[in-house]
């Protein structure tokens, strides 16, 4: 059985802090490895900073955000190929993704395909677990390295959930052998937003399956915790990290920061605080590493009744040998899950389960991004908060994908985009979304200033073709002449 690779202390690599990360990397700075958003890297055009880090022996792990393994559809083959190519190009020891769905609708539900533009929680039900396990196996077979999956933060609760988060993760590992990426900031977020106890979740999940840990900052507003990745790591998140480190010594811990980047000295202080928590836990308890069996509980989540989200379960069980294609991904808990005929993965019930999950996810996503009625059982207020958060996130990402738009539109960009998003769900990625937004403004005469309208139209003309417009002087002169003649 392959041991989990020891990673050490890492930081999320972003272009904005690339120079600082390079200075901190290695024995002198204490950064042992980095994680990069997989979709932001092209195998044939790896950023020079990442190449230099690789030459210095710094491990680079691709972190995917678009597979949607918790969705009702099987994983897209092209997205799997892209993730595999990035793992190979970076020489990564593993790849990571999320336990989430990011799109819904389409042929399975005979409804329009909608993109969330963000990670949304899957219901913790047997149907959802069956679908997720099959999707994970498909991904494992397609990837050249082991896969680890991250727990996500959530603002909303699914009605009728049958398991706690710990039980859900336990059974997922038990049935697939997948590794876990535990985000302690997300455990804290779910504590504030969903009333879930992080210590209870850690007691229930198989800590021996942890590949590494995420630590990130956020903020609380009106009783809701926002996992922003744009604020300092608060003491509450470090407390959850301490809880985890008292149970197991994680192979790696990584600091995430996606925007609002501070000075490098502040990042170094946050990394030092993380190291301090891990050292204190090691000095006090000598927790086992994630390859060593945790203390065997008297009752495991797999055998405990899961009649409600409050049903109890013990801590992780001793590791058992993984089988077949999952052996490279690490150990699985020894306890056998209790399954019914409908819970057998890949069996006759799988298409039925996919359709049930697909319909439920499509109804929820449509309510969030298209303004359709709120599905029964959901908190309308929380769905409103989630809907606004999705629109704001979408505006942020479009502003990064097409940075000219906030420059052209100035302070009107954000309110204009949020208004646009409320009636125009995303269906085909952020680049298409940026073009559609510009079309919406131009065709509806929603830009009053003539200079702004000309600049926006020029941007749209340059970006909407199959290839960028030529920058040669003769081509630029021809375009300028054409614009003059059209105005006449």
**Mean pLDDT over the residues:** 86
Q: Calculate the terminal CA-CA distance, rounded to whole Å.
A: 75 Å
Number of helix segments?
A: 16
Helix content: 40-55%
**How many DSSP E strands?**
14
Gyration radius (Cα, Å) is: 23 Å
Oligomer: single chain
Query: Strand portion, in percent?
Result: 5-15%
Low-confidence stretches: 294-348
SSE-based structural type: alpha/beta
Question: Helix-strand pattern, N to C?
Answer: EHEHEHEEEHEHEHHEEEHEHEEHHHHHHH
* Neighbour order of strands in the largest sheet: 3-2-1-12-9-8-7-4
Biggest sheet overview: 8 strands, parallel
Descriptive notes:
This protein is α/β, with parallel strands linked by helices. It has helices spanning 18-24, 48-55, 77-90, 126-142, 165-176, 184-194, 198-204, 235-245, 264-285, 350-369, 380-401, 404-409, 413-423, 429-443, 450-464, 473-487; strands at residues 8-12, 33-37, 59-63, 95-98, 101-106, 111-120, 147-150, 179-183, 210-215, 219-221, 224-226, 252-255, 319-320, 332-333. The strands form four sheets. Strands 3-2-1-12-9-8-7-4 form an eight-stranded parallel β-sheet. Helix 1 links the parallel strand 1 (8-12) and strand 2. Helix 11 crosses helix 13 (413-423). The chain is globular and about 75 Å long. The model is unreliable at 294-348 (pLDDT under 50).
């Amino acid at each position: 059985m392959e041991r989990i690779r020891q990673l050490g202390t890492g930081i999320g690599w972003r272009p904005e802090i690339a120079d600082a990360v390079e200075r901190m990397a290695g024995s002198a700075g204490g950064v042992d490895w980095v994680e990069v958003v997989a979709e932001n890297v092209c195998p044939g055009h790896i950023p020079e900073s990442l190449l230099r880090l690789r030459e210095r022996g710094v491990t680079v792990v691709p972190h995917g955000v678009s597979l949607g393994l918790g969705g009702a559809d099987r994983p897209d083959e092209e997205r799997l190929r892209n993730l595999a190519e990035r793992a190979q190009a970076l020489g990564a020891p593993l790849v990571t993704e999320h336990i989430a769905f990011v799109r819904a609708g389409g042929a399975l539900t005979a409804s329009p395909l909608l993109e969330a533009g963000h990670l949304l929680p899957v219901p913790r039900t047997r149907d959802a677990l069956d679908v997720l396990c099959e999707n994970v196996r498909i991904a494992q077979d397609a990837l050249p390295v082991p896969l680890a999956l991250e727990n996500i933060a959530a603002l909303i609760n699914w009605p009728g959930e049958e398991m706690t988060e710990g039980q859900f993760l336990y059974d997922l590992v038990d049935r697939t052998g997948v590794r876990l990426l535990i985000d302690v900031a997300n455990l804290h977020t779910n504590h504030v937003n969903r009333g879930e106890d992080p210590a209870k979740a850690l007691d229930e999940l198989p800590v021996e399956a942890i590949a590494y840990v995420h630590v990130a900052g956020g903020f609380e507003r009106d009783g809701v915790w926002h996992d922003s990745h744009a604020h300092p790591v608060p003491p509450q998140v470090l407390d959850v990290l301490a809880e985890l480190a008292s149970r197991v010594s994680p192979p790696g811990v990584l600091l995430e920061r996606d925007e609002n980047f501070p000075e490098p000295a502040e990042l170094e202080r946050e990394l030092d605080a993380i190291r301090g928590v891990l050292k204190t836990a090691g000095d006090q308890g000598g927790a086992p590493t994630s390859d060593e069996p945790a203390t065997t509980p008297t009752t495991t989540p797999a055998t405990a009744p899961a009649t409600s989200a409050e049903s109890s379960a013990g801590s992780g069980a001793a590791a058992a040998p993984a089988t077949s294609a999952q052996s490279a991904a690490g150990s699985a808990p020894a306890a056998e899950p209790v399954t019914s005929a409908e819970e057998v993965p890949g069996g006759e019930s799988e298409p039925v389960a996919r359709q049930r999950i697909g319909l439920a996810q499509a109804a929820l996503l449509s309510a969030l991004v298209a303004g359709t009625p709120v599905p029964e059982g959901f908190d309308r207020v929380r769905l409103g908060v989630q809907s606004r958060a999705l629109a704001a996130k979408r505006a942020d990402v479009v502003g990064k994908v097409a940075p000219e738009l906030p420059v052209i539109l100035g302070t009107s960009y954000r309110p204009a985009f949020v208004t646009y998003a409320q009636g125009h769900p995303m269906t085909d990625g952020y680049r298409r979304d940026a073009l559609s937004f510009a079309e919406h403004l131009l065709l509806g005469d929603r830009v009053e200033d003539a200079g702004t309208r000309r600049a926006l139209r020029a941007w749209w003309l340059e970006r909407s073709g199959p290839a960028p417009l030529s920058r040669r002087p003769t081509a630029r002169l021809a375009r300028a002449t054409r614009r003059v003649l059209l105005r006449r």
